[in-house]
Amino acid sequence: MIYAASNPEDELQHVQHHHRFVEGIKYTGWKKERVVAEFWDGKIVLVLPRDPSYAIRKVEDVQELVDNELGFQQVVPKYPNKTKTLLFISDEKKVVGCLIAEPIKQAFRVLSEPTGPETPSSKECQRAWQCSDVPEPAVCGISRIWVFRLKRRKRIARRLKRRKRIARRLVDTLRNCFMFGCFLSTNEIAFSDPTPDGKLFATKYCNT
Ligand code: ACO
């Protein structure tokens, strides 16, 4: 984040931004929250575009943090009235995961990269994925998926042999609640312009 150290307004914004980045965003709970999944370490809440302003404000706050981290600038959803946002709320009452999804009609499969000693790894390639130009039917597009950095790919108590898998649980829950009465297959979901981490996650999740 760019700021002028001598400007009190910028200073305050910087402190607030830093605090959110390090501490995460608090969630104290709403009377009318829509809990779509419950776990041993938290719950997932669904927020829809016509929800009360306090819920929308929370989503905007989280989205701002996520977009800053992803380097996304003003990504406008194709169907703003049909966007579904899932927030993973931890036991400590913090937003530790976010998934934003929208309806889509088609998607383009990422082509597998050639591998060899001369070929840079997927991380080094950054975001230059090659996609097929043949559209395939799809139902649900994940425009953003994000997990608070301290909760990524984490194990909780080793003896319980339970991994955090917050992103996996967010996508599982999305597949269950995106369309009433059906559980979407991995072929019906697509990830929008994934980051290297997003691509590694999607490849593992979709088994592709
Ligand atoms: N490298 C390799 N494998 C990975 C990675 C990775 N970076 N991230 C996840 N996986 C694998 C895990 O090993 C796991 O496999 P398993 O279930 O067989 O054990 C599986 O994917 C599920 O992983 P989770 O633990 O559920 O993933 P996590 O909670 O750590 O979140 C995420 C993954 C969302 C990509 C996280 O790393 C993150 O927030 N990154 C920064 C933001 C980002 O880049 N988001 C994607 C943007 S693209 C988009 O939004 C469409």
UniProtKB/TrEMBL annotation:
The lineage of its organism: Eukaryota, Metazoa, Chordata, Craniata, Vertebrata. GO terms for molecular function: protein-lysine-acetyltransferase activity. GO terms for biological process: mitotic sister chromatid cohesion. GO terms for cellular component: chromatin; nucleus. InterPro entries: ESCO_Acetyltransf_dom. It comes from the Eukaryota. This is N-acetyltransferase ESCO acetyl-transferase domain-containing protein. Residues 136-160, 161-208 form the N-acetyltransferase ESCO acetyl-transferase domain.
